[in-house]
Design brief:
Oligomer: single chain
GO molecular function: nucleic acid binding; RNA-DNA hybrid ribonuclease activity
Helix content: 40-55%
Protein name: RNase H type-1 domain-containing protein
Order of helices and strands: HHHHHHH
Organism: Araneus ventricosus (Orbweaver spider)
Structural class: mainly alpha
Amino acid sequence: MFCWIPGHSGIIGNEMAHKAARRPATVVDNFVPLCDALQAVKNQLTKKWQRTWDEQNQNKLHEIQPMVKPLKTCALNQKQSVVLNRLRIGHTRLTHKFLLLSEPPPTCTRCQCILSVKHILVHCPNFDIHRRNRFG
């Protein structure tokens, strides 16, 4: 005849381990909804993309759009969208035709500096009154 004797009887550490083993396991709920996980990944990728984009500061597009987040745009038709984007990057017939004709770049008749969209829209005194009327 056999008699079972627990191997941990009388040993305090073993008794505590036995009691802990008999208790129901506590479940740690670390559940993260998929949409939250995807958003976290998207945020990290956007941050990495922004750091890479910030290193491209000599890029013309970086100058007009320093953030990688998409621009909020109003509803534009194709022609309006093309005009707006050409103005944003500074490529217009007036300012870039010289490249096609192998001529020197055009200069502003008033300021004698190289003609650019930025110069016309922001700096040139010839257009101060128009800027004030349109933008205050």
